[in-house]
Amino acid sequence: MEAPPEGESSVIVSLSEAAMHMYTAAIDALPAPDDDTFHQRADIVLSGLRKLRGGLTEAAGRSRSTASVIVALSDVRRRYDTLMARAAAAPGAGLGQQLYAARVSARLSAQEVANGAGLRPDLIDDLEAGEIPTEDEAAKVRGLITALGGVPTVAHAEVPDGPEDPQEGAEEIDPEVLLDDDVVESVSSEG
């Protein structure tokens, strides 16, 4: 796959920053977790963050992604994890939100969880996106959540927010190193 021109990466990061500004404002405006509208409003933000995460994951997976794309992806993932942990700990949390929080706290991938629970691999992502499981699937997921130690409390599950400016705190990277396909592939395969 051909690398995006530097200008394209710049546009991707700028659009991501604009979207994150709106999502951060929406997260800040969420009602208390015990409010009847919390989950409905949080689900809308989570859906948007999943889409943004998907686009940035694709951009970061290119053979010559830029450091700014990777930093933007990290910021989106951090915010998503934090909001999912908050939603999972709230009254009335969905099974997928609870599974996500337990899985991330246990540092397991969706594939690893699916394999360990005897579930189809795409089911984990579907559940975490709000799909409703069958009774048999729900029983397996509940058992898995229990085996992983349950849903962590928000204080234990929260991932600290990243810097307001995704470039702030970003390590200086030699551009020549980024052109080395082996280095970039090892970075993108670690996620």
From TrEMBL:
> What ranges does the record list as Acidic residues composition bias?
161-184
A molecular function (GO) term: DNA binding
State the residue spans of region: Disordered: 154-191
Q: What is this protein called?
A: Forkhead-associated protein
In its UniProt entry, the species of origin is given as Mycolicibacterium flavescens (Mycobacterium flavescens)
